[in-house]
Amino acid sequence: SNLIYRRRIVSPPDISSSYDYVIAGGGLAGLVIASRLSEDPAVTVLVLEAGKSGDEVAAGINAPAGAYYSSIVGTDYDWKYTTVPQPNLNNRTIYWPRGKILGGSSAMNAMYLVRPTVMEVDAWKDIISSGDGDTAAQNWGWDKVYENMKKSENFVPPNQELLTYVNIDYEAESYGSGGPMQVSYPAFMIGINANWTSALDRAGCAPNTNPNNGTSLGGYIAPSSINPTNWTRSYSRSAYIDSLPPRDNLHILPESTVVRFLLSNQPDSSGKQIATGVEFASNAESPRMTVGVRKEVILAGGPLGSPKMLQLSGVGPKDVLEAAKVNVSVELPGVGQNLQDHLTAGVTWATPQETAGNIHASGSEFSQTPEFLSFINDAVAFVNISTLFNGPALEFQQQIKDARDESSRTLVASQYPEVVEGYKAIYDTIADKFLPDVPQLELLMSLISPSQVSIQAAMQHPYSVGRTYINSSDPFVPVVIDPQYYSHFADMTIMRQGVRFVRSVGAAYGALFGEEIAPGPGVQTDEQLEQWLRDSAANTQYHPTGSCAMLPKEKGGVVDADLLVYGLANVRVADSSVFPFEFAAHLASATYAVAEQASTLIKQKSYNVPEEVVTGGSNKGSDANRMMALPGIVHLLAFGLTSAMVTAWLV
Ligand SMILES: Cc1cc2nc3c(=O)[nH]c(=O)nc-3n(C[C@H](O)[C@H](O)[C@H](O)COP(=O)(O)OP(=O)(O)OC[C@H]3O[C@@H](n4cnc5c(N)ncnc54)[C@H](O)[C@@H]3O)c2cc1C
Fold first, then answer.
1. Pairing between β-strand 571-573 and β-strand 289-299 as defined by DSSP bridges
2. Model's pTM, two decimal places?
3. Helix 118-128 / helix 142-151 crossing angle, nearest 10 deg
4. What number does the ligand 1 atom closest to the CA of 111 have?
5. Annotated catalytic, 488?
6. What is the pLDDT of residue 646?
């Protein structure tokens, strides 16, 4: 049987008038933090999530093929964002799916579980560190981030059958054990996967036999966030919330969009503003409600949601706030700036081999089994610059360095001096440290279409940086997203070389691959490849970050090394928006680490809002302080799964 037995506890109809912690956004990071903070029964935690709970589609999300054949991309559980037209993509707008559901984008992602490298994470520590004695910065160096990534995991090695079919290299010590998120491999792979590392090797990219330990260079079969006891997606909700018995001190409220946090009239003794409550609403028409905050507000709305909530609260770049008619409470130019993303494009071949797409399309009995449906495109490779350029590319590196000052003047959309300084600091990091030594490109093979195989080339360290901002004070108006793709020449050059390398991997596959379908043999010169990328091929790899960057304030930072927003006493951002720069990795693993570390920091030391200023906490009698009693329409849910979830699945 593949039944999941779910025990749902419905809590009292009204939420409390105030909580110790209010978490804005119940996505990947938000639910991790909710779970960790509520381990202490003495603290109260409220999660406000804009999306629906997802119970209605839990079967789809949890279906083994949730990554592809029953994805929630494009459904009501997707924010369905689009960028503004991108001039360097022939004015195309790019679709940005994001999870609008408990679990956030971890409920819709492709489940690859890959880590950044030691050098990248240590550079993160270095860019926020004020010097040797800066202990807060140490939490963002490799050792600590690695520890936190592992803390979130329970690794289960691939089964023997799979191992003999496909060559999978791994070292179990490079993963965590006993953590909430299940990390493993699907039950089923395709023969073409078995030739992946050898084809790459022939093309000049050696296998990586111990991936995810801080050295991602090379080809390998990546693990996934999959639960091998039942072949379901392991995401922040199933891992961190459903696995718990219900907790009285944890309230999770779906269909509740955070509008803004409320600030006290008086700053505290250190001159910082204090968040005293959070305003939210079910939808654009419904009344606004407020809830008091006794300790802290934790923003976990992701790289679009968190800067939006800050800006709507009056914390952000002055020009943006004024244009949107939001009163400026704290001028913080970096909020929403520094937006970076990975761009990707795929070469497609016909193949005489059976792909997962053929099996799925056949409708056969096997195609319906959890084992088949657990198939995930796990073949990846991380490639460095010398593989892409047949040498160290010193000339290319020099061109990039020479373009730094001009790029900082012409490519940074918002010319606040701090934001420009941050751009330069990141630019130097990726041009000097990352270009020679850190992978520049990710390859991903896809086998989900019938009789076709495609390999993506995804650029990992963009010099093109954009921004996201509100253009209305209405929280239900979508944010503006402008990643400024390909505004810097280096991004295009790296992708163009990446496509060429992908072709050499295709050639190394030999007869297993048939003729090239896209872009097709007619597209060969630099100009032809670039036009193809611009006009149709380049697309997001779904890894936006940087919009609430952890950087020094004078470099356009939004949060400090404790994840506290500059100028605010008790508001943190803890999600994938805080990475100062992109990693050569998908972002989920590192985001779990941010959320785990945030939880530790908050448990160690958090702010106490003076009783008299908590919204609704004291009876001052004013309307602003009156807590709205919530009508019965709101679901207040705590989730729990019995151990039957595990035992009901027999594989
Ligand atoms: C299609 C897709 C495929 C991906 N594939 C992979 C992959 O294979 N491997 C990998 O590692 N990473 C992948 N990623 C990236 C990864 O899933 C995200 O980086 C990660 O989920 C980010 O976590 P987060 O907590 O920052 O944001 P999210 O998980 O997106 O959570 C943010 C939450 O906040 C909520 N929210 C936003 N605004 C508000 C508001 N005002 N009020 C209340 N709630 C709000 C949202 O609804 C959402 O639930 C993928 C992403 C996408 C979209």
1. parallel
2. 0.94
3. 120
4. 8
5. no
6. 24
Instruction: Write out 283-324 in H/E/C secondary structure.
Output: CCCCCCEEEEEEEEEEECCHHHHHHHHHHHCCEECHHHHHHC
CA pair distance 260, 254, nearest whole angstrom: 16
The distance of Cα 394 from the centroid of its chain, to the nearest Å, equals 32
Task: Tell me the mean pLDDT in the region 451-475.
Answer: 98
User: How far away, in angstroms, is 543 Cα from ligand 1 center?
Assistant: 9
- Contact in structure between 419 and 164 (CB atoms under 8 Å): no
Torsion 10-11-14-19 (CA) sign:
negative
More confident residue, 57 or 30: 30
Is the beta carbon of 27 within 6 A of some atom in ligand 1?
Answer: yes
- CA separation, residue 31 to residues 124, 179, 284, 448 (Å): 24, 14, 25, 31
Distance CA 20, CA 349 (A): 55
* CA–CA dist 503, 524 (Å, integer): 11
Reported as a pLDDT band with limits 50, 70 and 90, residue 617 is: low
Q: Which of 102, 109, 540, 572 to mutate to test the pocket of ligand 1 (most atoms within 8 A of CB)?
A: 109
Query: And the tokens for 413?
Result: 């959309």
Residue-wise pLDDT for 320-373, tens only, equals 999 999 999 999 999 999 999 999 999 999 999 999 999 999 999 999 888 888
**What pLDDT is attached to residue 165?**
86
Q: Measured between alpha carbons, how far is 115 from 213 in angstroms, rounded to an integer?
A: 8
Residue 30 scores a pLDDT above 90: yes
pLDDT at position 370: 86
State the catalytic residue, choosing from 360, 488, 543, 635: 543
307 lines ligand 1 (CB under 6 A): no
Give the angle 575-577-583 at the CA atoms, nearest 5°. 100
- At residue 59, the pLDDT reads 56
Name the residue of 102, 105, 445 whose CB sits within 8 Å of the most ligand 1 atoms, as the mutation to test its pocket.
105
Burial readout 108-138 (b: 16 or more C-beta within 10 A, e: otherwise)? bbbbbbbbbbbbbbbbbbebbbeeeeeebbe
The residue whose C-alpha atom lies closest to atom 9 belonging to ligand 1 is 112
CA distance 647 to 650: 7
Q: Which atom from ligand 1 is nearest to the alpha carbon of 30?
A: 25
Q: What is the pLDDT of residues 114-156, one digit of tens each?
A: 999 999 999 999 999 998 889 999 999 999 999 999 999 999 9
> Using an 8 Å Cβ cutoff, are 366 and 423 in contact?
no
Please, which contacts does 420-425 make with residues 24 or more away whose CB atoms are closer than 8 Å? Answer: 420/556, 421/554, 421/555, 421/556, 422/334, 422/337, 422/338, 422/549, 422/551, 422/555, 422/556, 422/557, 422/580, 423/338, 423/465, 423/556, 425/127, 425/551, 425/555
**Two tokens at 633?**
């329409």
Q: Is the CB of 300 under 6 A from ligand 1?
A: yes
**604's tokens:** 């160690």
Query: Residue 92's pLDDT is what?
Result: 98
How far apart are the C-alpha atoms of 644 and 651, rounded to whole Å?
Answer: 14
258 is in an annotated binding site: yes
User: What is the DSSP-derived secondary structure letter of residue 626?
Assistant: P
C-alpha–C-alpha distance, residues 150 and 177, integer Å: 7
**Are the C-beta atoms of 2 and 230 separated by less than 8 Å?**
yes
Residue in 587, 596, 597 to alter for ligand 1 test, most ligand atoms within 8 A of Cβ: 587
Catalytic, 586? Answer yes
pLDDT at 70: 78
Write the pLDDT tens digit of every residue in 373-407. Answer: 889 889 999 999 999 999 889 999 999 999 999 99
Rounded CA separation 464/411 (Å): 7
